[in-house]
Design a protein that fits this description.
Strand content: 5-15%
Number of helices: 10
Shape: globular
Helix content: 40-55%
Largest sheet: 3 strands, antiparallel
Length: 248
């Protein structure tokens, strides 16, 4: 069954069409991956029934199956629900109807917090990029993907600010740049610049640009200001087939 699901995910023209619709709707890469996972899992559960034969009752039964048989968490069931809602509304163009699935239980977990002393102890064992990322995340209150998606131009050294773009909820915000991290960040930019110049000389050096920026500004993808602040140590093939350096 797992082999069938993987084959369906990679080779199905229908799933390729679903991905195209998601990219047209400008969903994030992570959201696309999660939605495709649940849509493929749903079709596997229906024994790969034809898309035009899918009903909202099957969605109800599938979501109940996740809660009762698989005992998934409430957040997981909600993610599956949103995936199938997108499938019905934007791909199948069908009325989702009323879904009365059995709900997964919400766990009343008490969150764990890292204390200041624990952070200090942790930092003793970190160096290089990992240390800078940790200091930046802890000092500015940035989420993991907000850290990794920072670009060179998002560091405003003149104003002492860091610009966070497309954060949670697709919102932008500005946070103060910690004074203790100004020099490390300047050194990081110099390191990125050296790596970028080497990539350009090797025939690479383009970076992924969001939305239609790549079309509006054809040369921006080679501009240093658009490069990732924390680039991957390796060059790999992107979804469009281009060899480029992604973020860490």
């Amino acid at each position: 069954m797992q082999y069938q699901v993987e084959t369906f995910r990679r080779k199905s023209p229908f799933i390729n069409g679903v991905r195209h619709t998601m990219r047209a709707a400008r969903l994030s890469v992570r959201t696309e991956s999660a939605y495709v996972h649940w849509i493929c899992d749903f079709f596997a559960w229906t024994k790969f029934q034809k898309p035009d034969q899918i009903s909202s009752q099957q969605v109800t039964d599938y979501l109940s199956h996740l809660a009762v048989d698989r005992k998934v968490a409430a957040g997981t069931q909600n993610q599956a629900f949103n995936s199938l809602l997108f499938l019905f509304r934007h791909v199948l163009r069908k009325d989702f109807g009323e879904i009365n699935a059995k709900r997964a239980k919400v766990s009343a977990n008490i969150p764990d917090y890292v204390t200041r002393a624990e952070v200090v102890e942790l930092l003793k064992h970190l160096s290089g990029t990992a240390r800078l990322l940790t200091l930046l995340g802890f000092g500015c209150g940035l989420r993991l993907m907000e850290l990794l998606r920072l670009r060179v131009k998002d560091c405003d050294f003149g104003a002492g600010l860091i610009i966070v773009r497309d954060g949670k909820g697709g919102k932008n915000r500005v946070v103060p740049m910690p004074k203790s991290l100004v020099k490390p960040l300047e050194l990081q930019v110099l390191s990125v610049t050296a790596t970028h110049e080497k990539d350009l000389s090797d025939g690479y050096g383009t970076v992924f640009l969001p939305g239609a920026l790549a079309l509006k500004y054809p040369n921006a993808n080679k501009d240093i200001k658009w490069q990732w602040l924390f680039p991957s140590p390796t060059i790999c093939k992107d979804d469009d087939g281009t060899m480029r350096r992604h973020h860490l």
